[in-house]
TrEMBL record:
Function: Purine salvage pathway enzyme that catalyzes the transfer of the ribosyl-5-phosphate group from 5-phospho-alpha-D-ribose 1-diphosphate (PRPP) to the N9 position of the 6-oxopurines hypoxanthine and guanine to form the corresponding ribonucleotides IMP (inosine 5'-monophosphate) and GMP (guanosine 5'-monophosphate), with the release of PPi.
Annotated protein name in UniProt: Hypoxanthine phosphoribosyltransferase
Keywords for this protein: Cytoplasm, Glycosyltransferase, Magnesium, Metal-binding, Nucleotide-binding, Purine salvage, Transferase
Lineage: Bacteria, Bacillati, Bacillota, Negativicutes, Selenomonadales
Subcellular location per the Swiss-Prot or TrEMBL entry: Cytoplasm
Gene3D superfamilies, alphabetized: 3.40.50.2020
Length: 181
């Protein structure tokens, strides 16, 4: 399934699978002795695909929760406004929380979310992102579990969209500029 809108494949299905297994093993090791529930919080919609792969690579019990958050809409640059369309179902006070994202780009979304969730007094809060574009950062974000750093190119696939398209590509690729310019 190679879309003609894709200029170049950045990470193949196999490369993604291997890195997700490593991240899952690292998380399982780090929380091995944790007595409290570990909440994996997926930030929809982008994190949907990575989340379901990641949790199956973590060999210990975890609870799921989700938020629906949007700031890009149909554009290739952030609106700067983080809209919470669905909040968590469960209180996280005293719990271990891992926020799971597909990508941290300007950092606006994650900076906002981490501040907001810290205010609910979890026992700990860590960030897991499959991709990070450090060159685009506007708001500071410390990433505890990172799949790969990527250059400043607009990526799609493996959950990442442009105007809601391409999320179901099994690989990650660079979107041709002519599609969004
Ligand atoms: O670091 P930032 O510049 O804030 O960008 C990262 C955010 O942008 C994308 O979400 P988007 O708003 O596109 O919603 P989506 O997950 O539904 O695609 C992505 O899933 C992150 O949540
Ligand atoms: Mg998006």
């Amino acid at each position: 399934m190679m879309s003609s809108d894709i200029e170049r494949v950045t990470f193949s299905e196999e490369q993604i699978r291997m890195r997700v297994q490593e991240l899952g093993a690292q998380i399982a090791r780090d929380y091995r002795d944790a007595a409290e529930t570990v909440y994996c919080v997926g930030i929809l919609k982008g994190a949907a695909v990575f989340f379901t792969d990641l949790v199956r690579a973590i060999d210990r019990p975890v609870a799921f929760d989700f938020m629906i958050v949007s700031s890009y809409g149909d554009a290739a640059v952030s609106s700067g406004q983080v809209k919470i369309l669905k909040d968590l179902d469960f209180p996280i006070e005293g719990k271990h929380v891992i926020i799971v994202e597909d990508i941290i780009d300007s950092g606006t979304t994650m900076h906002y979310l981490k501040q907001m969730l810290m205010g609910r007094h979890p026992k700990s809060i860590r960030i897991c992102a499959f991709l990070s574009k450090p060159s685009r950062r506007v708001a500071p974000v410390e990433i505890d579990y990172l799949g790969h750093e990527v250059p400043d190119e607009f990526l799609v696939g493996y959950g990442l969209d442009y105007a809601e398209k391409y999320r179901n590509l099994p690989y990650i690729g660079v979107l041709r500029r002519s599609v969004y310019e």
